[in-house]
Amino acid sequence: MQTIAERLRSALSRIDSATANANRPPKSVKLLAVSKTKPVSDIRQAYAAGQRLFGENYVQEGVEKIIDLQDLPDIEWHLIGPLQSNKTRVVAEHFQWVQSVDREKIARRLNNQRPPSLPPLNVCVQLNIDDEASKSGLSPEELPAMIDAISNMDNLVLRGLMAIPKADVSAQHQQQTLTQLHDLFEHYRTKLSNFDTLSVGMSGDTEAAIANGSTMVRIGSAIFGARQ
Ligand SMILES: *Cc1c(COP(=O)(O)O)cnc(C)c1O
C-alpha cells in the first residue's frame, strides 16, 4: 500500500504535468489536500511530507483538528463545506480561508466576527455553476452584487471563486462550464487587487480544470484514501 507521502507526490506531479501541458507557469496551481473525515495523524503525515494547505467540510470537525494541530506552524485551513449562520463565529475565529461563501449574510457575520487580533479572513464566493438544486452557491447573475458587498468588508479579503462543476456530463458541457468560470474569474481578476484564486478541479477533472485557468485543485481520497 502506498503511503500518504507517496500519494501526495503523485498528486503534485499530476498537477505539475497538467500545468506544463497547459503552458502555464510552474507552481501556478496549488493543491488543497481535503482531509475531511480523516484523523489528525494523517494530516501530520501530509504536513511532514511538505503539504501546507488543508480543506475541511464540516465546521465542528475542522475546528477540532485546527486546535489539535496548533503546534504545526504555517499550516493553512480552508473551509470548503456549507456554512450556516450559527457557526460563523467559530469559523471566523479558527480558519484562514472560507471558500464556500454563498450569502451576503454569511459574509457579513464572518466580517463582524473575525477577531481583530487575526489577519483578515480570505474568502471565495462559491458559484453553483451548473444550477444544481443539490448544491450550494450563487448563480453567476447574483455574483456582481455579492462581490460589491464583500469588497466593502474590512475584515475579509476577497480572493476569488470556488465551484464544484457537475461530474457526469459530456466533455462539451464540461468545457462550457469551465470556460464560463474562467471568464468570470478573469473579469474580476483584472479589477480587484487580491483576486487571484479560482478553486476548481477535483480528482476527476484536475487536467480539464488546470487547462481552464484553475489556480487551486481540491483533492481528498487520492491522497488520504477512500472515505467510509
Ligand atoms: C470532498 C471534497 C473534495 C475532495 O473530494 P475527493 O473525491 O475526496 O478528492 C473537493 N472539494 C469539495 C468541495 C469536497 O467536498
UniProtKB/TrEMBL annotation:
Occurrences of domain Alanine racemase N-terminal (ranges): 27-227
Record's keyword annotation contains Transferase: no
Keyword Cell membrane attributed: no
Keywords: Pyridoxal phosphate
Gene3D superfamilies: Alanine racemase
Entry superkingdom: Bacteria
Pfam families, per the entry: Ala_racemase_N
Residue positions where N6-(pyridoxal phosphate)lysine is found in the record: 36
Family from the record: Belongs to the pyridoxal phosphate-binding protein YggS/PROSC family.
HAMAP family: PLP_homeostasis
Function statement: Pyridoxal 5'-phosphate (PLP)-binding protein, which is involved in PLP homeostasis.
UniProt protein name: Pyridoxal phosphate homeostasis protein
